[in-house]
Write a structure and sequence with these properties.
By secondary structure, the chain is mostly helical. Helix content is about 75%, strand content about 0%. The protein has eight helices and no strands. Residues about 1-5 and about 195-200 have low confidence and may be disordered.
Length: about 200
């Protein structure tokens, strides 16, 4: 029994180290995405000013992609910190609080979507050993206790959602005091669907 306890403690130590490394890497991974998000926002504003509504929507799609990844990074950071700070609970996974189970499930789900955070894949293996294959299967699929917002941000079909792209373009236009006839956006997209899909 003592041997098993030592093994579990060693696993807990390992997962803490991995999550701390992921937190360090998160800070680095955020910077280029923040820069790209800012550039996309500026590009959308300029394109709207010039009346290039279709191209503005393409850039809005890229803005959404960066925004969603940054939102997922916020959730991952929260989960990593929660698991590190309350790691002692991981020695008795069946007694973990709901918040800890949500954090573990969130990390397990995010691992497959975040190639820039390779530590999450290793942490997922340890967490799977602790919480069991049924829990891990649900977490990997993004069901059960996984936060739907994290699932949506990482894997949802939100980049191609026209209403969302229009909403982002409208918000950027409003922030920059740009007057745009957004009814033209639908016309531009209909023309694009007919066949005028030139690259940005």
């Amino acid at each position: 029994m003592g041997f098993l306890d030592r093994k579990t403690s060693k696993q807990t130590s390992r997962v803490k180290k991995l999550l701390k490394l992921a937190l360090s890497r998160l800070a680095v991974a955020r910077r280029p995405r923040l820069a790209r998000k800012s550039i996309c926002s500026g590009d959308v504003g300029q394109l709207l000013c010039l009346g290039h509504l279709h191209r503005a929507l393409l850039r809005a799609e890229q803005f959404i992609e960066e925004y969603n990844r940054l939102q997922s990074f916020d959730a991952i950071e929260l989960y990593c910190n929660r698991l590190v700070e309350h790691a002692v609970q991981l020695d008795k996974p069946h007694e973990c609080s709901e918040e800890m189970r949500e954090a573990a499930a969130g990390i397990m789900f995010a691992a497959r979507w975040c190639g820039d955070l390779p530590e999450l894949l290793l942490a997922r293996t340890v967490l799977e050993d602790k919480f069991g294959s049924d829990f891990a299967a649900m977490a990997k699929e993004g069901t059960g206790i996984v936060d739907p917002m994290l699932v949506w941000a990482l894997s949802g079909d939100n980049k191609t959602n026209m209403e969302l792209k229009k909403k982002v373009a409208k918000e950027i236009a409003a922030e920059n005091n740009i007057l745009v006839d957004f009814s033209e956006i639908q016309e531009a997209m209909e023309q694009d669907n007919i066949g005028s899909s030139s690259p940005c």
